[in-house]
Design a protein that fits this description.
The chain is mainly alpha-helical. Helix content is about 65%, strand content about 10%. A two-stranded antiparallel ribbon has the order 1-2. A two-stranded antiparallel sheet has the order 3-4.
Amino acid sequence: MVETAKASVQRGGASLTTTSCTTTQCTRQGAKVRSLRDRSLRRALQVIASVERAIRLVMRYDPNIAPDAPEWLDLDEGERISAIEQHHNRAGIRSGNATVHAGIDAAVETQLAEGMPVTVETLDRLLAEGMGRPDAIHLLASAIADEMFEMLKEQRVFDVDLYGKRLRGLTASTLGGRKRP
């Protein structure tokens, strides 16, 4: 025996109405709607959680304290840059291009969060030499910027070994990879 049912679903203000479906068909449609609704809800919750993580990180990013590595790595690159840019704005740090500056700082924080050995070792050494973490982050960032400049000038790819050598050459008495006068 075929039963007729009417299913109506509200989605985004539009109504989808199906009439004249068998019980089995209506059950399948209902399952599809629930599945779509569940997926949409899950995605919305993921977006909300991501925004909440970004807000928490922006509100508490402080170069004096290493960000929580899993939270930092869970953010996309734009969120990381934004977190540092917001800190720079609050701290009154000005540079030629604030986004590029924050992007290079974010690259350093990402290398640290990922546990890149040469970056972690260099930061630890600079801190042991008495350098503050914000200055050390900027000094590490100068090594990235120097390597990027050389890449563009020489039209070559990033040289991890040369970058490591640059980092190992940094000390608390250097500024931007160059000896202070």
